[in-house]
Amino acid sequence: MKIIKLQSWEEHLLKLIYSLRDEEFKWLRENQHNVANCTALFWFSPTVVSSFAFWGCSFFNSAPLDAVTMFTILATLAIVAEPVVMLPSVFSSMIQAMVSFDRINKFLLDDEVKIYSIEGTRVVNGDISVHIEVGNFSWESESRMLVLKDISLAVKQKEKIAICGPVGAGKSSLLHAILGEIPKISGSVS
Q1: Which of 74, 109, 144 represents a domain boundary (last residue)?
Q2: Same domain for 67 and 104
Q3: What is the DSSP annotation of 138-150?
Q4: What's the sign of the alpha-carbon dihedral 66, 72, 77, 78?
Q5: 63 neighbors 57 (Cβ within 8 angstroms)
Q6: With a threshold of 0.90, does the pTM exceed it?
Q7: 12 and 75 inside one domain
Q8: Which of 109, 142, 171 is the last residue of a domain?
Q9: Residue 57: which residues within 8 A CB-CB, separation 6 or more?
Q10: Which of 4, 19, 29, 150 is 20 to 30 A from 126 (CA-CA)?
Q11: Would you say residue 17 lies in a domain?
Q12: Per-residue pLDDT of the chain (190 residues; tens, 9 = 90+)
């Protein structure tokens, strides 16, 4: 936000946001029209199908249009209509199941969480709970591009510390290094 204000880009950004909102509104309006059309078709289809069935029977003279024939046709259409009504729900459930299985599969095939060489033993001085000595850390263990370089830190028990710095200075990386969630290239962490 600071960069936008310093460069005086507020008006340009506002126009961009409004154009994106207009595009989204058009899409939502079209989507709602489609939903309304599908709903109307869904509710009118039994009447239309029965009308065509009766019209076909009378036009082709295939069966006399008495009460027995009409009730038989209506009962048959009601029996056939139930699976047709359930079809969208079945498709929706199948899609949700496929998405869920993909997420579970991705989770199960993910790499295991690795604890990168954190010694759980106490340091010589018993009142220190976190100790990093000349630690070098990189997010990719194969890469020699260091995220944290030559970090030395000692935190005493019951001591409160604050990690401050600008965006991208490595505050979160330092916390990950303390927790052992970032590959340690050299040094010691205990």
Answers
A1: 109
A2: yes
A3: -SSTT----SEEE
A4: positive
A5: yes
A6: no
A7: yes
A8: 109
A9: 63, 65, 69, 73
A10: 150
A11: yes
A12: 777 777 778 888 899 999 999 999 999 999 999 889 888 887 888 788 888 888 887 788 776 778 887 888 888 888 887 887 788 788 889 999 999 999 999 989 877 656 655 665 554 556 888 888 888 888 877 777 888 888 888 888 888 888 888 888 888 888 888 888 888 888 888 8
Helix H or strand E segment including 156: strand 148-156
**Residues 6 or more apart whose Cβ sits within 8 Å of residue 164:** 171
- Total domain count, the chain: 2
Buried b (16+ CB within 10 A) or exposed e, 122-149: eeeeeebebbbeebbbbeeeeeeebbbe
DSSP for 10-26? Answer: HHHHHHHHHHHHHHHHH
What φ, ψ does residue 16 adopt, rounded to 5°?
-65, -45
The answer to whether 124 and 106 are in contact (CB under 8 A) is no
- Domain residues for the domain of 185 are 128-189
The CB-side HSE value for 175 (13 A sphere, CA atoms) comes to 7
